[in-house]
Amino acid sequence: MGWSPARAHPTGRVDDAKTLYLSLFTQHGIRPKVFTGLANYVRVLHDGQFLSSLGTIAKFGVIQIPVMLLLALALALYLDGLRSARWRSYFSLSFFLPYAMPTVIGGLLWGYLYSKGLSPFNQMLAPLGGQIDFLGRSGLLWSLGNIITWTWTGYNMIILYSALRGVPGELYEAARIDGATNLQVIRFIKLPMVAPALALAALFSIIGTLQIFAEPFVLGSLTFVPTNLMPNLYIYFTAFNYGNFNYAAALAVVLAIITFALSLGMLALLNFQRRRL
Amino acid sequence: MNRLNASAVTWRVLVLLLSLYFLLPLVWLIVSSTKSTGQLFTTFGLWFASPWHLLDNIRGMAAFQGGVVGRWMLNTAVYSGAVALLSTLFSAMAGYAFSRFEFPLKTVLNLMILSAVLLPITALVLPIFLILHDLGLINTYWAVILPLLVNPLGVYLMMIFWDQGFARELQDAAYLDGADEWRVFWQVGLPLVRNGLLTVALFSFVSTWNNFFLPLVVLSKGSLYPITLGLAIWNSTAQTGASVDYPAILVGALISVLPLIIAFFTLQRYWQAGLTSGSLK
């Protein structure tokens, strides 16, 4: 579910305008809704549950995104240097495979792999007397991080790998004539060439992280997952479990603004760097 | 024959292990769908156990609630097929307009389509839910299909494919031969952007197949669920009950992922084209 532009299916401005419109009203039960202006937004800014979900997602992203992108970059560089076409196609297909699985099914399978009775990891650890509580309070976010990394590393790797393929062959030729080592070729040719694609992948990953929903939702059937673990989870429960559509709309608009602000900031940073080069 | 040196071998082994990590859930799924509930808990998860129970599990899955899983698969196929077909057509039309015509607010509209990709799914699904509710379309096939027909990424990709695949000289020649706009689009243009159409269709098919949030919100009737939502709900209600029929759920999960994996492997060059043209600009 919606964690990349390729999967998201946003429906344009009319709906966004309606979210904005909804967020300006308050409705209690079956009483008619009343216009309450920005009151819902004031409430968002003081909503400890929502702010804590933002804090969680920020901590989550700061660790998960770099780990995933570094892994994707390393794999892309490895694939690019690989001579055997057969190995290259095996590796790219197996890394990309998780993307071809529905996020809910991926989340469900990892949930089983983490669960007490079924986990093959714990089956292997059992003779040693160890057990890992993957879905416990302290393990949950790490386990989620693993699911997201598993799903999206291959996708990012393909993007970086295609950027590497676009490097003109003469550059490598020239470097070899100048006696550059493999590491120097990576450091001075490949990395600079792949930097724009890497930045774009980072941008998509930030957007995607803010949108995580299906994985923690599915894990919620196997373990305790706080309803405000991540912003979209909190918005969903506010709207569809507690029936507070107006307040949920305000939350969604704030999340949209945060997403836009982060994306624009990221793009501005990129343009600034490009101009300096 | 090239001899690999020590460091190359180390790398190869490392990456090979990593590839097993990416395959792990699928391997576990395949192995586990051949086991009975007892075997799932008592035998090692990553290797087969005898006797095989695959057929029993398939029977168990098929019997669940009078064969509702088959219905879910069919629903998923209907949703994905309809969305792939129609949203690709609309993307092709909108992309053509952006590629070939000048009209007021073109730049603004173009920017809006690009920024639509940034909107959080909840910001979109909330109003979609209320609009569908007002139209009386909640718990219908349309509730899933209609919202997904709007596909900003598809429009953007088609715009690029039209720019690159359909030469303006050819378009002008068709006009000179007396073809009208409609004919130029259908008979001259579309065949030339075939690869683009297949790419957009593949991506919208897959994203519809994988979609979870929209059906979760707009459907509450079990007979309309797509397979992903059905399995998630089956699992979550089973977890609260006395015993979970894991094998049947697992066979269902296996059946739900196989078509996509096959589609990805056979249509490799199209998704690669989609990913790269999306990232180049």
Provide a descriptive summary of the structure in words.
- The complex is a heterodimer of chains A (277) and B (281).
- Chain A is an all-alpha fold and 277 residues long.
- Helix content of chain A is 70%, strand content 1%.
- Chain A has helices at 13-22, 39-45, 48-81, 85-96, 103-114, 120-125, 140-165, 169-177, 182-210, 214-219, 231-240, 245-276, and strands spanning 25-26, 34-35.
- In chain A, β1 (25-26) and β2 (34-35) form a beta hairpin.
- With 281 residues, chain B is an all-alpha fold.
- Helix content of chain B is 75%, strand content 0%.
- The best one-word shape of chain B is globular
Overall number of strands of chain A: 2
Instruction: Name the chain pair with the biggest interface and residue counts per chain.
Output: A-B, 85 and 80 residues
What is the spatial order of strands in the main beta sheet of chain A? 1-2
Q: What structural class do you assign from the helix and strand content of chain A?
A: mainly alpha
Indicate the percent of residues in helices of chain A. 55-70%
Percent helix of chain B, as a range, is over 70%
Strand content of chain B: under 5%
* Strand residue percentage of chain A: under 5%
Q: What is the succession of H and E elements of chain A?
A: HEEHHHHHHHHHHH
User: Based on CA inertia axes, which overall geometry of chain A fits?
Assistant: flat
Total helices of chain B: the number is 15
Number of strands of chain B: 0
Oligomer: heterodimer
Total DSSP helices of chain A: 12
